[in-house]
Amino acid sequence: MSANLLAYIDIDSPIHRLTGSTKLICFLLWSVTAMLSYDTRVLVVMLLLSFIIFKISKVDFKDIAFVFYFILIFLLFNNLAVFFFSPLEGVSIYGTQHNLIKLFGPYVLTTEQLFYQFNMTVKYLTIIPIGLIFLATTNPSEFAASLNKLGVSYRIAYSVSIAMRYIPDIQRDFIEISQAQQARGIDLSSKEKLSKRLKNMGAILLPLILTSLERIETISYAMELRAFGIHKKRTFYNARPLKKSDLIVIIGMTCLMGIFLWITFSNGTRFYNPFR
């Protein structure tokens, strides 16, 4: 498992050189567009662009692979749940029904349902890489300063910064506790039965929770001793002003997302319908 799980990776790339404010604005624009659109043409283009942006960021895939695959598992379960609870959702959206396979009971696999869930999957896949890039290329302290610059209270901004820094700490503690428990004979490998492995996992989670609570208490005391929050405003050491490149990226992203939304709603609905 990577030592940089959802943590800031300090390398030099065009994405890293952008300010936290720029990356946050672009991420929000990207996410809103992906959530609103069910136009397959737009979503596929956004998916390809997300891969290009990931390449530009110079982030090694192995540094985020664990989280990426973990999200894909939940995405699979989400697709199964959508089909289980609403097997004809695509039919109601697109207004036609082309049956492929009769499964059991009321469950019929239709072309419309497959197309609907394909679009839904692509929507998630367009956001996941951008979200991971955002976390991997944004310094928590600089991001807190950027949030404060956008009008967010510095108390909230600092809380977000601490949370971003805390993720790799939890991962490191998990690995250390896991190795210590395995040295004591607790087997977590694939050789053990799944039920036994889940039971043994409790020997890791309880110390991890206690360690996390102790760290939270330590941070709270440290902040109180330094009179954190006594003033209405504060300065940030890592604050960076917007540069020309930031403005170009923000304007470019705004225009691009505007075009995507125009294409999405140009036919009067946000669903692209190839069945009519």
From TrEMBL:
It holds the Pfam family CbiQ. GO terms for cellular component: plasma membrane. It comes from the Bacteria. The chain crosses the membrane at residues 27-54, 66-85, 114-136, 247-265. It is found in: Membrane. Keywords: Membrane, Transmembrane, Transmembrane helix. It is a multi-pass membrane protein. PANTHER family: ABC TRANSPORTER PERMEASE (PTHR33514:SF1), PROTEIN ABCI12, CHLOROPLASTIC (PTHR33514). This is Energy-coupling factor transporter transmembrane protein EcfT. It comes from Turicibacter bilis.
